[in-house]
Each structure stands twice: as C-alpha cells, then as structure tokens.
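Exercise 7. Predict the structure of Alpha/beta hydrolase-fold protein from Pedobacter jamesrossensis.
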Amino acid sequence: MNLKFKTTALAMTLICGICHAQMQSENIREDFKPSTLNQAGQEFPQVNSQGYARFRIKAPQSDSIKVSLGLGGQGGTKLTKGTDGFFTGTTSGPMDEGFHYYHLTIDGGVFNDPGALNYFGSTRWESGIEIPAKDQDFYALKDVPHGYVQQILFSSKSTKSSRRAYVYTPPGYGKGNKRYPVLYLQHGWGEDETAWSNQGHANLIMDNLIAEGKTKQFIIVMTYGMTNEIKWGGMKDFKIENFQTVLTEELIPYIDSNFLTVADRNSRAMAGLSMGGMETHSITLNKPELFGSYALLSGGTFNPSELKDKPKPALIFISCGGKERPENVKNAVKALKEAGYNAFSYVSENTGHEFQTWRRSLRELAPLLFK
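Solution. The predicted structure, encoded as tokens:
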C-alpha cells in the first residue's frame, strides 16, 4: 500500500467517523430529564425518551472520567471536560429499559456518582440509573393497599453469627389468623438481601397484582445467598452446602415459628435470579421435600432426568431475557411438559441479564404460585 493511498484511506476513515458522530448527535432527542433514581435536587444523570443516558460530573482537578454501566461495570462512556470543570457525556446508544448499575472511573480510581442513589451490586454499593420502561406501570407506586417489608435478624449456629433477611407480608397480614404460603426469593451474584426490594420492586409488584386480583397473597423472604465471596467468573467454585444449611435448617424454621405461614411443602416455593437461580436449582434438587414450586430467573434450567424419582413439584417456572438464550429456556420447558411436569417459560422482550427481565419474571411467576 503506497503512502498516498494510506493517507487517503485515513482521511476517509476520519470523515466517516465524524459523519457518523454527527448523524448520531442529530438523532438524539434533547428531551432529557433527571433520572428517577437521582439524589434529591440533583439534575444529573439524565435520560431521554429514546433511552440514552447523559452524565455530568464536576471535577476541575481531574483529567479523565469514564462511566461504566452494568453489573461488573462492563464497557464505558468517556466524558469530555469543559472549561467550567464539568465533565459531560452521553451514552453511544440507547440503553435497555429498566434499572442499571454504574460507577465512575476518575483518573484511574473508582467512585460513585454524587448525583445518583446507590444500590448494592457488583459486591459494592454502586450508583443506579433507571431507564423508563413502556410497561413500568406494573411496578409503579400506586394508591392501593400496601404490604410491609421488614428486616429480621435470625441466629445461625452453622455460621456462628446473626444473619439478616427481609420479609414482605401482604396487605392485611396479621389482622386475623389467616396463614400464608411463602416464597423464598434469592438475589444474584454481587447483590444482597436488599436487591429484590430496592432494585426489583418486588413489594410493589405484589401489591399491584394483589390489588388487581391477579395473584394469591403470599409472604416473600429474601436473604443473603452467601455468594459474594466468589470472584466474578468463578461461579463453578461456589459450594451450596453452607447456604443450604442456613436456609433450610435455620431461616425456614425461624420464619415458620415467627410468621403466619402454612408450613408445608406445597405452600413453600423457592426462586432466584442468576446465581440465585443456580442456588435454587441445587437446593430444590437436594431438598425436594421442603419446596413444592421452583423458579429459575436467568439462572439455568431443569431437565426431567434430574427430577426423576424425586417428589414432583407443583410448578416449575423458567425465564430469561430475550437477549440471553431464550431457546434454551423454551426447549427445557418443552421437555419438562412432555415428561409430565407443570412447567412454564417466560421470555422478557428486548432485555438481557438485568432487573427488568427479573421484575417481569416475578410478575409472570406470582399468579402461577400456590394454586
């Protein structure tokens, strides 16, 4: 390749890049509004009607800022420094609807965005941003009867510690002697027992479904799955035994002793997202006498051979995002149905391994439980 050709090719590449950036900029609607997850009075970050996110950080003494979005902080949006000391930048494309973790890398150090609220994910408190979803009404805060989410502390002899869980009780709980089924609902890797209430809006999803008469009332128990000691990418090294003991021998007896539960297999279910789904898969196979319904949300699948000769579950629910591997979920459920199991699949349209997938999955799962 001669020098003249190289120079021409380089110029054409630069021109194309500039044109693409200009076209992209022209196509972005300037209807940005503060994210609903911003700290009080903070204007940034912002989102627009197309799903783009815009960030603005004041750091006059800094040289570079990158925004890393998603669980684990993959990818990045580089911000540009202005003469006023503010760094500003917009994502290169629209983001998926729903909740996203993110953090800032400022001159090589990792920080949270001072404008956003923080949520526990990626084994640390991360900033959060919400891209409004077209179907967000099902987890909206509405003028309907609300249940309660309370923190409980229970003793764990196996770990020689006191442990924490959050318990959702439905509207009207405790006003009589009515007893309720229980769903044990697990978070994913990097998260903790706060995730399903804070990021997932599990309580609001349940309140709205109950108000619409679409689901039976039940208790939800959310506890830490003891997963975060495993480094990212090392899931195969996780051992279920310690958490299985905490859940089945310590937490379940505590819940049945202190809450108005129906303490039998058919009135007890377990579900989990991502690594919490892997935990659900292992524990329900190991302890099928304890759980009557199983749900894996982006957390693998069941197959008939591993369920053979075990107490038959009343329900198996398997879901994932449309950007994950929906064919695996559909094929697994097809095989389960052919083997005589009451199995359901759900695929969240246009979402990946993220909370919008799992919010929608809970909405679809709840009406199927405890029939």
